[in-house]
Each structure stands twice: as C-alpha cells, then as structure tokens.
Amino acid sequence: MSLQEAENAIIEEFSMYEEWLDKYEYLIELGKSLKDFPESSKTDEKLIKGCQSRVWLDYKIEGGKIIFNADSDAIITKGIISLLIGLYSGRTPQEILSSDFSVVEKIGLKENLSPTRANGLVSMIAKIREIAYGIEGLD
Amino acid sequence: MYMLVNDIRNMFPILSRKVYGKNLVYFDNAATSQRPQSVIDEWNRISAESNANIHRAVHCLADEATQAYEASRDAVRDFLNAEFREEIIFTSGTTASVNLVAFCFGEAFVKEGDEVVVTEAEHHSNIVPWQMMCQRKGAVLKVLPVDDDGHLMLDELDSLLTEKTRIMAVTHISNVLGLVNPIKEIIDRCHSKGVAVLVDGAQGAVHCKVDVRELDCDFYVFSGHKLYAATGTGVLYGKKKWLESMPPYMGGGEMVGTVRFSGTTYAPLPMKYEAGTQNFASAATLKSAIDFINLLNNSELNKSIDEIRDYILHCLNKDQRIRLYGVPRGTSDEKIPLFSFTVDGVHHEDLALILDKMGIAVRSGQMCAEPLMDRFGVTGMLRISLAPYNTIEEAEYFVKCLNKAIDMLI
Lengths: 139, 410
Ligand SMILES: Cc1ncc(COP(=O)(O)O)c(C=O)c1O
Known about the structure:
The complex is a heterodimer of chains A (139) and B (410).
Chain A: H1 3-15, H2 20-33, E1 47-49, E2 54-62, E3 65-72, H3 75-88, H4 93-98, H5 103-106, H6 115-138
Helix pairs in contact in A: 2-3, 3-6
Chain B: H1 5-9, E1 18-19, E2 22-23, E3 25-26, H2 37-49, H3 60-80, E4 88-91, H4 94-109, E5 115-119, H5 128-137, E6 140-144, H6 157-160, E7 165-171, H7 183-191, E8 196-200, H8 204-207, H9 212-215, E9 219-223, E10 234-238, H10 240-245, E11 256-260, E12 263-266, H11 280-283, H12 285-297, H13 301-318, E13 322-325, E14 338-343, H14 348-357, E15 360-361, E16 363-365, H15 370-375, E17 381-385, H16 392-409
Parallel strand pairs in B: 3-15, 5-6, 5-7, 7-8, 8-9
Antiparallel strand pairs in B: 1-2, 4-10, 9-10, 11-12, 13-14, 14-17, 16-17
The structure holds pyridoxal-5'-phosphate (PLP).
Pyridoxal-5'-phosphate binds next to helix 4 of chain B.
C-alpha cells in the first residue's frame, strides 16, 4: 500500500467512529498493542518532551527504509504514535517527506496537537520529518 | 439568606454552555474561577461608560474610573480586615505580588549569607522569585518539607529558622494538596525569631475567612481571577511599616512625588507601588467579586459544598486504585474541595482527555509544583477543584465518569 493509500485507509477507519469516546477506545487499543520500548532505551536523547506525556522515538535504517520505534507513558498518545508508526515506518525518506502529515488533523485529532495539550506529538511529527530529511540528505 | 445552588448558577452565564454537546462540568476552579454576571457587568460598565485613565485627569470620566478603582481598594481592605487602605496594593496577580515583595524586601533587608525559608508545597510562583532574589543577594534558600500525607512538617520549622533568616514564604493552602496550613502558628513562630512572613493566599483567600490583623502576617497576596474577578488583577497586602521601608519596584508614572534629573521622590502608599497605567477596569471588578463572596457567605451554600467535598473524599478514599495527595488528619474541614490524585497504572493525561470529552474540565500535569511532584515520585497528577456553584449531581457524574475512564484505560 502506498503511503497515500495507507493514510486514506486510516481516515476512513476513523470516520466510522462518531463519538469521541469511541475514537479514544480505538486509540487505547492501538496503544496497548504497540510494543513497549525496553526501559534501557528510554534515554534522554530519544525523549521528546511533551507537555504532560513523554514520548520516546528511536529509528534504524534497513535497505534504504526507516524503521521507527516509539513509546509513550500515556496510552492515548501511544495510540496516536502507533498510528503514525504504522504509516511511516518501513518507508523511504522520500515517501515520508512527500506526506503533508495532515492525516492527524483529518481524523479529528487536531485538538490533540494543540500546543497546550500534547506538543509531544507535534514534536514527534517534526522529529519524523527531521530524521527523514537528514537521511535523504545523506543520499 | 436562603439560596439554592441554582440561584448561584444562574449568576454565572458560562455554566449553561455545553462542551462537545455535553453539559459543562467545570472542576478546574483552582486554576481560574468563573465570573458572575455582576463582575462581567462591572467590567463592561467601566469600558462602555467610564473609560479614562485613573488618578490623572480632572474630567468626569477619569473621576468615575478612579472612584470605581478606589472602591475596590476599600472592598479589599474590608475583605482582609487590613488596618489601612494604603496597605492594599493592586498588582496583576499573585505572581506579580510575590515578585514585588521578593525583589523589594530583598533589596532592603537581605544581604549575603542571609536565609529565606519556603516550603516544599509551594507553587512555582512562590519559589522562583525567592530563588532569584537569593541568587542576586548571595542568600540561601531553605525548604520546610511535607510529610507523606502532605502536611507541613512543623517540627522542623524551629531548626530552620536561624538568626540569619529574614523572611519565610508559605502558602495558606497548596494548589495541589488543598490542606489549610496552620499559618497562624507559623507566623507566630517566625515572629518570635524576628522573621517576616509572606502568605501566598491564591487559594486561601478563596476558601478561608482571612483577617490579616488577627493573623499578623507581614504580607498576604492573592489573584483576582481565582476569586471570581477579572484576570490580570491581584492584591498585595503588606504591613505599612514594610511597604514604607522597602524601595519601589517599578519606576514610572504616578509612583512619583517630584521628578528631577537630579533626583526623584516617590509618591506615598499605595501609589508608590502602582507605577504606570493600571488595569483599572479589571481591578474595579474586585469589588463586585467581593460583594458576591459576601452574598455567598451569608447563604447556606458553603455547607452544601462541604457535603460535596466529603462525598468526593469518601469516593476517592475507598477506591484502592486511587492515591490521594493531601490527606486530612483531623476533620475533613482541614481540606478544601480540591483533590489531586493519581491512579495506579493510568496516566493523568489520558484521564484528563477522556473526562474532557465527557464534559468535565479537570487539571492534569505538574500543576506548577515540580518539587512536590518529585516529593511524591510522580510525573504529574489529576486535580479537581470545586466552587460553590458546583452541585452534588456534578460530583456524582464525575465519580461515575472517572470510573468509566479508568475502566477504559486499565
Ligand atoms: C497557591 C498558588 N500560588 C500562586 C499561584 C499563581 O497565581 P497567578 O498565576 O494568578 O499569579 C497559584 C495559581 O495557579 C496558586 O494556586
């Protein structure tokens, strides 16, 4: 599935939930299913300090693709992270940079990205782009 | 006077709004309280009818605006039972008041090697200004700790106060713990050693009857926006002897006697500390807010908020998953209707996000009290804080929603 297709699939998935609590329920399940970071990897370099929740982001490069790994101490944030990882992990830097990352907004989580709420997420998206940009620059 | 909670609710237009289609349950009153129509009206009245710079001009509008502003000063003086009206200084809030005292008291009375005492339960606003002053003056900041239940460890106070201690800054009620501190005893013990005391009344002024003469505190500070008045208003009460012997804080218009390049003399109190154009339209609402509080105090409603507090305390205490910070030891009257807690295995942010979508506004995070978070070994807490316009039905709805949210998350 192309990145665009994957983004559209998620937008469609979310449009099925009308109630906010159902969206959260879904994100909580996603968050719970995302593998925990090993405690030893929760280092300060990998920490993206948010307002309330903490987010850790790690990556490696395999065959020209970036494999992301992330964790958070808050489960809803972790669910959103899981969504982002599902979308952007295993893609080339070029693919990632071609996205406008509007998917989070389109699934109605924009308020979760507002500065007072979870700027950890804003920083995480910025970090994903930054990593992709840095690696693309190496080519 | 007999008033029902609905009579009070009807005075607060915001309480009838909905969030995400649900009735708003506003449980974040310790951060900022809502405003009654009378406060909104007073601000509008000044803006629409009497907007003119105060204290300066002789025209009619200036006179009206000045009168409204000064009427608030009289209302605050009565509210605190201060001896002189010029002991009431208007500021932009608690933070500004503490900074003013930390700076000016520091300039006048603190020298290298001196000591300042704060407590572990302070809001950042009552820590950082003192740290800055200590840094500037080469003084030492000492800390009175709290115990596991959140009570100040008064046994340690006497050993903290030395002949080098100049001032102690203590909160009347912590915005995290919600326990009424024994400030009268602290003040007496400080005074017996010649130490001045500043009381942070940001929460105390809202929940306690404050009599600065009976307390004998040297400074008492609070914010208008937590006390039903407009934002950007604050009060510094200071004993005249201190306010007269400290230097001014900011220089500018209206705080002067005569200005010459060869030297300037300062205006008498209270103007000495009110440099520049003041936030007069907002300050005028302090009087309306105090009128509202007096109305409240003459009603039975404070009793009903006590019952709601006891109900929530009971529900939180009996839930094994919940850890409450600030546990009353004697009667529950030691505690205001403010509860900070964590839930085992659940992040406070998740709870706050879900409760928000259920229409309930709560606070989550460090609550400007990182040292206290460290003390209890947590990264943050969830806090609910109630006002007299909150109802038992809202409290029951909250308990139900909290349980549902925890079930979703565990
Ligand atoms: C105990 C306490 N002190 C100080 C403050 C700071 O008040 P303000 O932000 O209005 O200056 C607050 C409010 O958050 C508080 O609760």
